[in-house]
Every structure is written in C-alpha cells, then in structure tokens.
Backbone:
C-alpha cells in the first residue's frame, strides 16, 4: 500500500482515480454494499490514505457523483454548441441518459437517497433539469418541432412527480431503466411534437424503444 503526503501531483491524480473507482463500485453493487476498505483495496492504497482525502463514504459518494455530472455536462455542452436543432439535442441527451443508467444497480438509486448531502445536491440538480427542460421545449416550439398549446412548466412538474413515484414505489425493481425512460419520456415526447417533430422522432434511433 502506497502512502502519500502533501498536495503532490500524484495526490491530485489519485483523487480522480479514487472518485472513478468509487462510483464504479457504487453503481455496480449499490452504495451500502461498498466499504471504504473496498475502494482502497481496488486502488492498492491504504485506508488511511483514502480517509486523508475523503473523510467518509458520504463525501466520497457526493464527490464521485459531482465529478461524473460535471464531466457529463461539459461533454453535453460541447455537443449542444454544434447541434443543428433542439431535436438533435434532446435525442442525444435521451440516448446518453439511457446508456449511462442502463448498467446501474437499482440499489444505487435507493441508497443515495439516504445521504443528506447527496439528496440535497440531487434535488438542486432536478430543479436545474426542470429549467433546462423548459428552455429546450420553448426552443423546440420556436423551431417548429413542438406544439404551442402545451404548458411545459406544468409538464416539468408532472415529470418530477412521476420521478418521485418511481422511487417511492420501488419501480426500479419491477422495470428496467430503459422501460421507464421510454414510457415516461419518449411516449409523451411524441405527444408534444408537431408533424415536423414527429418526422424527426420516427427517423431517429429512438423509434421502437417504448415497449
């Protein structure tokens, strides 16, 4: 086991490696099942070294989720800059979300609700997502892809309520992430679309995902 001291380049690099390894373990096994010892051993460092960097599992969980989200936002922002239309953005965002959550153990989503710092962060992220949803839907209306007669702020609130219901009723144990996303997001998306928007949906790789 290698010990480290000070704010060295190795230590800075190690922080990122720890977060990546921790998140991988959390999403594969659930948070409760992963011990700090497990993370330290997977990286061949001592538990003491791990605790010098992250004081407890909640901080490790929070920082690992934060790093992943920041990396994802940077990548998506780069895509948005060159996307020709809002439909391209929405379809890409949907694909990425399904891809990154398809291999997540349902226990992960249940476990993270038990950590106050993480729960507060996720609630803030949900509010950010609702604002982004409204912005993109309004852009879609302007570009002629979405109907003008829909209250998209209300739709955002309804999505939030459905998300809470999914967690409270443990639907992740009954359905796959793909099934939930397709029926909760993709089916209503068709209802928001104008004929122009529907044409894009029907010619995208999303067609047939809602089963």
Residues:
């Amino acid at each position: 086991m290698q010990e480290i001291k000070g704010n060295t380049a190795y230590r800075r690099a190690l922080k990122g490696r720890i977060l990546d390894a921790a998140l991988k373990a959390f999403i594969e096994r659930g948070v409760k099942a992963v011990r700090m010892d497990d993370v330290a051993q997977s990286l061949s460092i001592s538990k003491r070294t791990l605790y010098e960097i992250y004081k407890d599992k909640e901080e490790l969980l929070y920082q690992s989720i934060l790093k992943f989200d920041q990396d994802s936002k940077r990548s998506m922002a780069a895509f948005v800059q060159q996307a020709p239309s809002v439909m391209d953005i929405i379809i890409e965002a949907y694909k990425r979300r399904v891809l990154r959550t398809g291999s997540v153990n349902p226990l992960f989503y249940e476990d993270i609700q038990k950590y106050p710092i993480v729960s507060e962060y996720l609630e803030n992220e949900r509010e950010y997502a609702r604002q982004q949803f409204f912005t993109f839907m309004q852009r879609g209306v302007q570009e002629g892809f979405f109907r003008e007669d829909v209250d998209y702020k209300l739709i955002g609130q309804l999505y939030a309520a459905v998300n809470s219901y999914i967690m409270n009723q443990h639907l992740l144990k009954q359905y796959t992430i793909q099934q939930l996303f397709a029926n909760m997001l993709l089916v209503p998306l068709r209802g928001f679309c104008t004929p122009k928007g529907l044409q894009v949906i029907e010619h995208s790789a999303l067609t047939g995902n809602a089963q």
